[in-house]
Specification:
This protein is an alpha/beta fold and about 220 residues long. Helices cover about 40% and strands about 20% of the residues. β1, α6 (about 90-95) and β2 (about 105-110) form a beta-alpha-beta unit. The structure holds S-adenosylmethionine. S-adenosylmethionine binds near residues 90, 111 and 161.
Length: about 220
């Protein structure tokens, strides 16, 4: 292989060990307490995956690069941030690290087990054990929502649930907010686009297990 091509390949495709380090699953940089917390998260996640494979829709919690990229796409505009499908809270932490005010964040998670974990990790956040297909019913009346940050496995959810979530998202962002969604289906058309939403940002995150695509959508004009 020509040297330039090899270099480009190395830059784009991470070495397996560097890849695991980037997910902070191995490496000396992670303090023991954080490592134990991460390992517990992976185990809880695996247990939920075995019980509810379609609702969990992933083989492990999101990696930090994916979580950070989702959080970075939250616009500066005023309003609530609604996180849907928070799982073990990796994206929740990234949203807080991004500087979003804790009082402005509402987390909706379906699984009672994940809700218990989330309440343990973030005791001062509003964590609702509920269905994203009913998200407007959990929000204060007339609330302005700047962004929905969704880790929901839209592709593996039943068609009717998916349609209800997409329609609820539209009523939630009310023409001014946005929806940030990730998927492992790197090349397929997002259900949000199929429903007429306009995409204004996209990124591929190779340093995730498996690699993911993040997109930001706005309501159709
Ligand atoms: C891909 S996992 C989330 C991964 C998460 N970012 C993490 O790092 O742990 C999808 C999550 O969506 C939740 N979920 C699935 N259907 C839901 C629904 N209708 N409403 C709310 N949460 C839902 C699942 O319980 C699961 O926690």
């Amino acid at each position: 292989m020509p040297a330039k091509l090899t270099r480009t390949f190395r830059e784009r495709v991470p070495h397996p060990l560097r890849f695991l380090k980037s997910l902070r699953l191995v490496g000396p940089s992670l303090p023991p307490a954080r490592f134990a917390q991460r390992a517990r998260g992976v185990l809880w996640f695996a247990a939920q995956l075995l019980r509810h494979p379609r609702a969990v829709g992933a083989i492990c919690p999101s990696g930090q690069p994916l979580a950070r990229r989702m959080a970075a796409l939250i616009p500066e505009t005023p309003g609530l941030v609604v996180e849907c499908g928070a799982g073990t809270g990796v994206v929740t932490q990234a949203i807080l690290d991004r500087g979003i005010d804790r009082r402005q964040l509402i987390v909706i998670e379906y699984s009672p087990l994940f809700c218990r974990i989330l309440r343990g990790k973030f005791p001062d956040l509003t964590i609702i054990q509920g269905d994203a297909a009913k998200m407007t019913s959990y929000l204060p009346e007339g609330a302005r929502v700047a962004a929905i940050v969704s880790s929901l496995p839209l592709m593996s959810l039943p068609r009717a649930t998916r349609a209800a979530i997409i329609s609820q998202a539209d009523s939630t962002i009310r023409g001014t907010g946005c929806v940030i969604q990730f998927t492992y289906a790197l090349w397929s058309t997002s259900p949000f686009r199929q429903a007429g939403y306009r995409r204004d940002a996209r990124a591929f995150i190779l340093r995730n297990l498996p690699p993911a695509r993040v997109e930001r959508f706005r309501s159709a004009e």
